[in-house]
Amino acid sequence: EIVMTQSPATLSVSPGETATLTCRSSQSIRSNLAWYQQKPGQAPRLLIFGASTRPTTIPTRFSGSGSGTEFTLTISSLQSEDFAVYYCHQYNDWPRTFGQGTKVEVK
Amino acid sequence: QVQLQQWGAGLLTPSETLSLTCAVYGGSFSDYYWTWIRQPPGKGLEWIGEINHSGSANYHPSLKSRVTISIDTSKNQFSLKLSSLTAADTALYYCARSPRLITSSGAASYKLDYWSQGSLVTVSS
């Protein structure tokens, strides 16, 4: 099983600043990684797939990068609606696995 | 607009079998993998398994002995059964859609682009 490790567990950021979240995999997953945002009481929402591809409905302030074993989600100019928990998800191998999440909170 | 709506019993006792069904409205049903994910209260996401329109399923090894995912293409529905429940199975259960990605190794699931709102299943005596 591929283990996904996210850091930090909690990130305190002020509105308008940039948040950088990291996800590492226990073995190479090429670019087979997605990021999701989850707000309290809601289902996760797809933000990024293919490590760096953003669905058309996702704002451009969300960007993803990386390949192999290290990946980054960057949220530029944080808005109030961006404070949430973020999960990475590998689909390179079965079973599919998720990171434990990073909570982005207001500083 | 694609919508996934699920239903099933919310309160079960240990040793019982969980049964959830997810109906898909809008979009094609045959070009996707249909997935179940769960989230224990206050914790992260756990992939349970998936099935394609042909009925070929993949399961998480830790649950494989207790889980069955089935599909009814005539109704655009798929279902989850999880047997021998314990308190550790208490979670919010989601169904989700994954488009089919054609790779050099064949077809596979990838991004989870539509999710249900989830339903809480509590296992308690």
Write structural notes for this entry:
The complex is a heterodimer of chains A (107) and B (125). Chain A is an all-beta fold and 107 residues long. Chain A is 0% helix and 47% strand. Chain A is built from no helices and 10 strands. The model of chain A has no long low-confidence stretch (mean pLDDT 97). Chain B is mainly β and 125 residues long. In chain B, the strands form 2 sheets. In chain B, strands 2, 4, 5, 6, 9, 10, 11 and 12 form an 8-stranded mixed sheet that branches. In chain B, strands 1-3-8-7 form a 4-stranded antiparallel sheet, with no helix packed on it. In chain B, a hairpin with a 2-residue loop joins strand 9 and strand 10. At the A-B interface, strand 9 of A face strand 5 of B.
What are the defining features of this structure?
heterodimer, A: 107 residues, mainly beta, 6-stranded mixed sheet, 4-stranded antiparallel sheet, 0% helix, globular, B: 125 residues, 8-stranded mixed sheet, 12 strands, 56% strand
Itemize the secondary structure elements and their pairings:
The complex is a heterodimer of chains A (107) and B (125).
Chain A: E1 4-7, E2 10-13, E3 19-25, E4 33-38, E5 45-48, E6 62-67, E7 70-75, E8 85-90, E9 97-98, E10 102-106
Chain B: E1 3-8, E2 11-12, E3 18-25, E4 32-39, E5 46-52, E6 57-59, E7 67-72, E8 77-82, E9 91-103, E10 106-109, E11 114-115, E12 119-123
Parallel strand pairs in B: 2-12
Antiparallel strand pairs in B: 1-3, 3-8, 4-5, 4-9, 5-6, 7-8, 9-10, 9-11, 9-12
* Terminus-to-terminus distance of chain A: 35 Å
Give the mean pLDDT of chain A: 97
Strand/helix succession of chain A: EEEEEEEEEE
| Tally of separate helices of chain B | 0
Order of helices and strands of chain B: EEEEEEEEEEEE
Total DSSP helices of chain A: 0
Q: Give the biggest sheet of chain B.
A: 8 strands, mixed
**Helical coverage of chain B, percent range:** under 10%
Radius of gyration of chain A: 13 Å
Number of strands of chain A: 10
Poorly predicted runs of chain B are none
Global geometry of chain B: globular
For the largest beta-sheet of chain A, the strand count, sense and barrel status come to: 6 strands, mixed
Beta-sheet strand percentage of chain B? over 45%
pLDDT < 50 stretches of chain A: none
Strand content of chain A: over 45%
